[in-house]
Design brief:
Layout lengths: L5 H11 L14 H9 L8 E7 L5 E6 L5 E8 L11 H10 L2 H7 L6 E5 L3 E3 L14 E4 L2 H14 L8 E6 L9 H14 L7 E5 L3 H7 L7 E5 L5 H7 L8 H9 L9 E7 L7 H14 L3 E7 L13 H13 L4 E3 L20
Parallel strand pairs: 4-7, 7-8, 8-9, 9-10, 10-11, 11-12
Antiparallel strand pairs: 1-2, 2-3, 3-4, 5-6
Helix pairs in contact: 5-6, 10-11
Bound molecules: S-adenosyl-L-homocysteine and iron/sulfur cluster.
Length: 359
C-alpha cells in the first residue's frame, strides 16, 4: 500500500498485544491510514463469545462463534487443573515464585496477579472417534484456521482483562478436535501466540490421540509446546477397544516417534490416562503401564484423568479407591503420576465433554 514499514509493526502490535476487535480501535495508526485499510477491504476481528457457562468451581465454558456461524468451545480455568503445575516441572517452580509475589503486585495495581489455564479447540468436532469422548459424537465439521485458534485465546484474555507479562497464562490444546489432524493451522497459531501475543511456548501443552505423522513433524519444530500423548491403555488390545485409531498407529510405533521429540531440560513427556471403570483401571493395568513406560526409556509422567461421563457413552467412572490404588502403583514403580482435578463438570466443560452443549 506504499505505507511506511513501521506501520506493519503497529498493526501487528494492535492485533496481538492490544487484541483490538476493529480497525477503528487501532489508535496508534492515524485516521487516514485506518481509512485506507478499511477501504482496501481488509477486515479484522475477534471471535465472538456468544454464550458463557459458569461452574461452581470458577471454570467458565464459552461458546465461540466463527465468522461462518460454526461454533467451538473454549474453557477458562482459574488456577488450572493441576495438569500443568504441582508436578515438579519448571512451570510449577515458576508458579511458586510468582505466588509469593502476589502481595506486592496487589499494591502496585488494583487488579491482583492472576494465573489461569485456557483450553483451546483446534477443530469443529473431531474425526478420531474415541469411544469415551463426547466430542467424537460430532464427527469433524471443519478445521479451524490459525486465526480462529489464536483468536479464542485473544477473546478470553480480553474478557478477563489479562495482561501478558503480569498474569501467568498456561494454554492447553485439549479442547475440541485433534490438533495434529489440523497440523499447519495449529502450528501457525502457536507462532501467533508466541511471537504475537507473547505467551511462551514452554507454557503451552498440546495433546494428541497419537497421530504418528503429526508427532514426526512436531519433533522437527523449533518452536515447540510441551507434548502430551493420550495413551489411555497399557496395551494395544485395550487401547484398540477404546481408541480405534490404535489399529492405524500402535503403541510401539507411537513411543518410538516420541523418542525423536527433543525435550527441554527437566521436561518430561506427558502421558494422559483416562480412567474408565472396569476397563483400564485395574491394578494389573497400572503394573503393565508402569512396565511399558519404564521400558520405553522416556523421561515421562502420567496425568490421570477420572473419566467424565456424558449422555449415551457406555462407560462408568472408576471407584475412588481404584483411582488411588492405580496412582500409588505407578508411583511405587517409579513412574510419576498426578491426578488431574476435574474442572467445570457441572457445566460440561471438563475433558471430553465439549460438545457445544447449550442446554
Ligand atoms: N484430541 C486430543 C486433545 C483433546 S482431548 C487428544 O485426544 O489428546 C483431551 C484429553 O481428554 C485427552 O487426553 C482425552 O483422552 C481426554 N478425554 C476425552 N474424553 C474424556 C472424558 N469423557 N473424560 C475424561 N477425559 C477425556
Ligand atoms: Fe478427538 Fe481427543 Fe475426543 Fe479422541 S479424545 S475423539 S482425539 S477430541
Amino acid at each position: 500500500m506504499g505505507l511506511e514499514q513501521y506501520r506493519s509493526r503497529q498493526l501487528w502490535q494492535a492485533l496481538y498485544q492490544q487484541r483490538v476487535g476493529s480497525i477503528e480501535e487501532i489508535t496508534s495508526l492515524p485516521k487516514s491510514v485506518r481509512d485506507l485499510l478499511t477501504r482496501s477491504g481488509l477486515e479484522i476481528g475477534l471471535p465472538r463469545i456468544t454464550q458463557t457457562f459458569l461452574s461452581s468451581d470458577g471454570t467458565e465454558r464459552y461458546l465461540i462463534a466463527c465468522p461462518d456461524g460454526e461454533t467451538v468451545e473454549t474453557v477458562w480455568m482459574p488456577n488450572g487443573d493441576d495438569g500443568e503445575l504441582g508436578d515438579g516441572s519448571d512451570a510449577a517452580i515458576e508458579e511458586a515464585d510468582a505466588t509469593s509475589k502476589v502481595g506486592s503486585s496487589k499494591l502496585e495495581n488494583s487488579i491482583p496477579y492472576r494465573r489461569a489455564t485456557i483450553c483451546i479447540s483446534s477443530q469443529v468436532g473431531c474425526a478420531v472417534n474415541c469411544q469415551f469422548c463426547l466430542t467424537a459424537k460430532l464427527g469433524v465439521k471443519r478445521n479451524l484456521t490459525a486465526g480462529e485458534i489464536a483468536g479464542q485465546v485473544a477473546a478470553v484474555l480480553n474478557r478477563h482483562q489479562v495482561k501478558i507479562g503480569r498474569d501467568r497464562i498456561n494454554l492447553v490444546f485439549m479442547g475440541m478436535g485433534e490438533p495434529f489432524l489440523n497440523y499447519d493451522n495449529f502450528m501457525a497459531a502457536v507462532h501467533l501466540l508466541v511471537e504475537g501475543m507473547g505467551i511462551p511456548e514452554s507454557r503451552m501443552t498440546v495433546s494428541t490421540s497419537g497421530i504418528l505423522p503429526g508427532i514426526e513433524r512436531f519433533a522437527m519444530e523449533k518452536l515447540r509446546p510441551k507434548l502430551a500423548l493420550s495413551l489411555n491403555a497399557p496395551n494395544d488390545s485395550i487401547r484398540e477397544s477404546i481408541m480405534p485409531i490404535t489399529r492405524k498407529w500402535n503403541i510401539e510405533d507411537l513411543l518410538a516417534a516420541l523418542h525423536e521429540v527433543p525435550l527441554r531440560p527437566r521436561e518430561r513427556m506427558t502421558f494422559e490416562y483416562v480412567l474408565l471403570g472396569g476397563v483400564n483401571d485395574r491394578l494389573q493395568d497400572a503394573r503393565e503401564l508402569s512396565t511399558l513406560l519404564r521400558n520405553s526409556g522416556l523421561p515421562c509422567k502420567v496425568n490421570l484423568i477420572v473419566w467424565n461421563p456424558g449422555p449415551d457413552i457406555p462407560y462408568r467412572m472408576p471407584a475412588p479407591e481404584d483411582v488411588g490404588a492405580f496412582q500409588q502403583q505407578l508411583i511405587a514403580s517409579g513412574v510419576p503420576a498426578f491426578l488431574r482435578r476435574p474442572r467445570g463438570r457441572d457445566i460440561y466443560a471438563a475433558c471430553g465433554q465439549l460438545k457445544r452443549t447449550v442446554e
